[in-house]
Structure formats: C-alpha cells, structure tokens
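sry for the spam today, last one i promise. struct tokens for design, 136 residues
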C-alpha cells in the first residue's frame, strides 16, 4: 500500500539546534511526529478524540533513520509522511525531510495501534485508513 505523501512545513528554531548550530539529531524524530500528527488531523482525526471515541492510541514501535545533510537555524524545511505498509494493528511510514530539493533525512517509522488501558494491539479503524486514502 502506498498512499500519497502528506507534507508539512517546519521552521528551525534556535531551540532545535545544538552547540554547532545544526539541528540536534533527536529533533528530527520530533519533526517526523509533528508531520504524522498533522497528517492525522488533515484526515479529520484528533488524537484525543481517538482515545475518547475509538479507545485507541498510536505508539512508535520502531524507527530506522538516516541523516544525510544538516538542517540549520532559521531554515524552512518540509517533512513528508507516506504510509507504505498497512497491517491490522500497525502502519509503516516512510518519512523524508527536505530543504528545497535536498533530502536531509529519511526514516521508516512503524506505528502500532493499541488500547490505551491495556497497551495491547488493537485493529486500526477502517474509517481512518479510508480517510487517509481520500484526504492525504
């Protein structure tokens, strides 16, 4: 399964950088998270509503990341997210961070759908997948 990529712009703030003036490596994961959250929002779902109404939360199961070029203070970057694999209770996202045409970082992030009380896997609601197909 490959859905259209969702894209979200992010400005690099001073707080995102390390002593060398480049984005601290762990902050790329935060940028990936923001993009996935905005993708969910663009599809019409808020995470707090999913907890309340569907009794699900999404947790990161695994991450593979490659850092290719640094992002620096005050740059505008674009973060993308595309679902490349769908399973009953998880999604695999391919995520990229660009500055213009340059790919700065790429990652594979597996997200698991779980029950918020038991933290056990739970099927992803079909409506959510269908909405991703329609909106993103």
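last one done:
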């Amino acid at each position: 399964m490959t859905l259209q990529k969702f894209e979200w712009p992010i400005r690099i703030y001073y707080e995102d950088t390390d002593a060398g003036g480049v984005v601290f490596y762990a902050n790329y994961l935060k940028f990936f998270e923001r993009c996935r959250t905005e993708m969910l929002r663009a599809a019409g779902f808020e995470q707090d509503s999913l907890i309340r109404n569907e009794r699900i939360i999404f947790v990161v199961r695994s991450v593979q990341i490659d850092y290719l070029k640094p992002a620096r203070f005050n740059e505008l970057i674009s973060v993308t997210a595309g679902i490349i694999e769908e399973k009953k209770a998880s999604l695999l996202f391919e995520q990229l961070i660009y500055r213009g045409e340059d790919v700065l970082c790429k990652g594979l992030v597996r997200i698991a759908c779980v029950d918020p009380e038991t933290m056990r896997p739970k099927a992803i609601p079909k409506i959510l997948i269908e909405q991703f197909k329609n909106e993103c």
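The mean pLDDT is 94. ok im logging off now
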